From TrEMBL:
Keywords: Hydrolase. SUPFAM superfamilies: alpha/beta-Hydrolases. This is Alpha/Beta hydrolase protein. It holds the Pfam family Abhydrolase_1. GO terms for molecular function: hydrolase activity. Gene3D superfamilies: alpha/beta hydrolase. Residues 28-150 form the AB hydrolase-1 domain.
Length: 283
């Protein structure tokens, strides 16, 4: 991606410098929020594609991930979704915008919904791609997945790190499908941060979705066809029911926006169109 020349910046929020970058300067802002792998590089293909279509596009490395490391002397902190929402706010503000369309994938989808809850006036549209809100799953699956998360956390804490990470990765189906390019690997420290500081919170966290409904926030949700019946994909069905929002089946697996960008992009643009039309109908 030799022609990829974004503008970089850093904003410090709550003792952590957040490294962000953007492409395009003339259109409305679309901010991409990473999930558990923490790094924004996975969205560079989307930034490239959308910046040529009249959008300002940006992403960032999340707190304690990749290039967004805590300030010297600051301790690492346990994941707080409201703090992640404040980080999103800080990046949008640093980019010079009052509001944005925010797209988050995986746990980034959870943080996107939290941002929409906490700062509704800053949301143009919120799009959550395969947000793993597993407590929304029907019984007994919700309880089984919750217990499975905690069994993996205990394995990690007992020193069985490779086994825990391997079992977790085995549920991310679709990545090994024939002909699918490999995703960009995050820095090794990101996985450690995820397991030690993020996973215990994510195992059961659900933002106040009913407040989003009350606020009439513009929300759309997506699930990938390659994810098939993965628990995080099935959770999207339940999320759409709660929110009463548009749901779209999109190409690819959990990171299709990175490795099947050309196939993913038309669905992303269609979701924006649907959300715009839906909002216009409500006026």
């Amino acid at each position: 991606m030799a022609s990829f020349r974004p503008t970089h910046g850093t904003v410090t929020n709550e003792s952590c410098p957040l490294h962000y970058w953007s492409l395009g300067t003339s259109g409305p802002l679309i901010l991409f929020v990473p999930g558990g792998n923490g790094h924004g590089r996975q969205f560079n293909p989307m930034l490239t594609a959308l910046s040529t279509r009249g959008f300002t596009c940006a992403t960032f490395d999340r707190r304690q991930m990749s290039s967004s490391q805590p300030a010297e002397g600051s301790k690492r902190v346990i994941l707080s979704p409201p703090q992640q929402a404040r980080d999103i706010r800080a990046v949008i503000t640093a980019l010079g915008f009052a509001k944005a369309t925010v797209f988050g994938s995986s746990s980034g989808g959870i943080f996107t919904l939290q941002f929409a809850h906490d700062f509704p006036d800053m949301v143009e549209h919120a799009i959550a791609h395969e947000a793993p809100l597993t407590n929304l799953l029907p019984a007994p699956m919700a309880s089984e997945v919750y217990d499975w998360f905690w069994r993996l956390i205990e394995m990690w804490r007992a020193g069985e790190r490779e086994q825990a990470a391997g079992e977790f990765a085995s549920k991310l189906i679709g990545y090994a499908d024939e002909g699918i390019p490999k995703t960009v690997s995050p820095e090794p420290g990101n996985a450690v941060n995820f397991w030690e500081y993020e996973m215990p919170t994510l195992a059961g966290y659900v933002p106040n979705l009913w407040r989003l409904v009350d606020n009439k926030t513009s929300v759309g949700v997506m699930r990938g066809v390659r994810s098939r019946d993965a628990f995080f994909a099935l959770a999207v069905d339940e999320l759409a029911k709660v929110l009463g929002c548009p749901m779209m089946m999109v190409p690819g697996h959990h990171q299709a926006f990175e490795v099947e960008t050309e196939e993913f992009l038309p669905f992303f643009l269609e979701m924006l169109k649907v959300l715009e039309e839906r909002r216009a109908e409500k006026k």
